[in-house]
Write a structure and sequence with these properties.
Elements lengths: L15 H35 L1 E8 L6 E6 H4 L3 H17 L2 H27 L3 H8 L7 E7 L2 H26 L10 H22 L8 H15 L2 H12 L14
Antiparallel strand pairs: 1-2, 1-3
Protein name: Trp biosynthesis-associated membrane protein
Organism: Williamsia marianensis
Keywords: Membrane, Transmembrane, Transmembrane helix
């Protein structure tokens, strides 16, 4: 039983254009999800690089102790470049397909792992005093006394890495569900081969159904079928016919009929 307003015949299968349209819409939604996830990850990494990761208290013995601030960009140099690469991953997801998109997804996942490493050292490391004094190039006259680390930047980095991993997963799903390349992106040789299959398959079908006249010239029958195929098929068939003519090939002659 068909739904009201459904003009599709019960026994009619959806056309290739309709299927491609649905796949294109699904890809657009997945690209939107990827853009949001990678954008969130990039913002998280960039924000963490601007946050205060630790405060180091040191004294030189001649003045009161001084507090040195350790930013995320001091703690690690990775966060800002990784954020830029994640933003580039959004463009890569929109422009790549197939194995290229899978490779881009693996790169995004690797970036997430790299981003986690400094957060782990912040949250689980023991000797933060020596490390903090080293990364800010504290003057030699100061003696580090203690360091107070903040947990929040580490959590922000972990959330950003999680978003990047989820974005990589969606990229892999998109690569697996991508439709085959449209004929308008195929080479002329590939389109000619596809046209030959269509023309001669239709000619054989016409012969069986008695639509072809009793001419003894197989080329005449091929031309009749190709003409009907061009009329019944759509703009892609016309384009493939012109490609064949441009290269000097007769699209109405099958491979077995051509002279070696």
């Amino acid at each position: 039983m068909t739904e009201p307003g459904d003009t599709t015949n019960p026994g009619e299968l959806p056309s290739g254009e309709a299927v491609a349209g649905r796949r294109g819409g699904g890809r657009g939604r997945r690209l939107g999800v990827i853009a949001v996830l990678l954008g969130v990850a990039a913002v998280a990494f960039w924000a963490a690089s601007r946050m205060t990761w630790a405060e180091l208290i040191a004294a030189d013995g001649m003045a009161p102790p001084r507090t040195f601030t350790v930013k995320g960009s001091d703690w690690t140099l990775l966060l800002t470049p990784l954020a830029i690469v994640l933003l580039a991953g959004i463009a890569a997801a929109a422009s790549l397909r197939g194995w290229a998109l899978r490779i881009a997804a693996v790169v995004v996942a690797a970036i997430a792992v790299l981003g986690i490493l400094p957060a782990i050292t912040l949250l689980t490391g023991d000797d933060h005093t020596t490390y903090a004094a080293k990364v800010i190039d504290m003057p030699a006259r100061y003696q580090p006394l203690e360091v107070d680390t903040s947990v929040l930047p580490g959590i922000v980095v972990l959330l950003g890495a999680l978003a990047a991993v989820l974005g990589a997963v969606v990229m892999l799903q998109t690569a697996a569900l991508d439709a085959p390349m449209s004929s308008k992106y195929k080479s002329p040789a590939a389109r000619r081969a596809e046209l030959e299959e269509q023309v001669f398959a239709k000619r054989e079908a016409d012969k069986k159904s008695g639509r072809v006249s009793g001419s003894n010239d197989p080329r005449e029958g091929g031309r009749t079928s190709s003409t009907e195929a061009a009329a019944d098929g759509a703009p892609n068939n016309e384009r493939m016919l012109w490609d064949a003519l441009d290269t000097g090939d007769d699209p109405t002659v099958g491979p077995s009929d051509r002279q070696p």
